[in-house]
Amino acid sequence: MSDVLDERAAEAAGRVDRLLGRLGDLADPEARSLAEDLVRAVSDLYGAGLARVVQLTARSAGLPGDHPACGCLEALTEDELVGGLLALHDLHPSDLRARVERAVAGVVDGRDGSDATVLEVDGSRGRVRVRLLVAATALTGPDQVERRLRRALASAAPELEEVVVERPPVPTPVRLLARR
Question: Which superkingdom (predicted)?
C-alpha cells in the first residue's frame, strides 16, 4: 500500500476513534443510541460489500465461494488494513490463532535473539497471552517491541479485547570486583 493510502487510513482510523469517544459522551441517550445504530448499520453495509469483494475475487480465480486458496484473497489478507477489516467482519480465511501467531512472528523473528511465545488464545473471551523475551543485544528495547507487537495484534485480530504481554523481569547486571 502506498504511503499516501497508509496515511489516509491512519487518519480515518484516528478520526473514527475520536468520534466514537465523543459519541459515548453524548448526554441524550436517544441521540447516543441512534448514532450507535447508525455506526453499526454503516459498518454492516461495508462488511457486506467486503464479503462481496471476497466472493468475487475467489470466483474470478475459478474457485467456489470464498475459497482461501485464491492468491488474490491471500494477498488481501496479508495487507494490514484489508486483513484487519476482513477479520473484523469475520471474513478472514485464517482462524484467530493463526492470525495471532503470524502477527507475533512478524514482529519478533528471533534474528536478534529475541523471542515471543503465544501462550493462550481464547476467542470466546477475546483474550490472548504472549510471553515476550527481548534480548539485551536487540536493536530496539522491550517497550518498543511490545508496542509493535500490540499494534500488529490489533490489526491482525481486531476482535481481541485483551492482550496480555508477559515480560520476565530484566536481570540486574552484577559487577564483579577484582581483589587487589
Answer: Bacteria
**pTM score, two decimals?**
0.67
- Helix 71-78 vs helix 80-88: angle between axes, to the nearest 10 degrees? 100
**Do 82 and 101 share a domain, yes or no?**
no
pLDDT digits (tens, 9 = 90+) for 134-149: 876 666 778 888 998 9
The answer to whether 69 and 63 have CB atoms below 8 angstroms apart is yes
Strands 115-122 and 127-133: antiparallel
How many CB atoms are closer than 10 A to CB 35?
17
Q: Are residues 3 and 68 in the same domain?
A: yes
Helix, strand and coil percent figures for the chain, each rounded to 5: 55, 10, 35
Burial of 9 (0-12, 13-18, 19+ CB in 10 A): middle
End-to-end CA distance of the chain: 63
Q: Are residues 9 and 73 in the same domain?
A: yes
Please give the grid coordinates belonging to residue 33.
443510541
**Domain end marker among 93, 116, 150:** 93
| Mean pLDDT, rounded, of the chain | 83
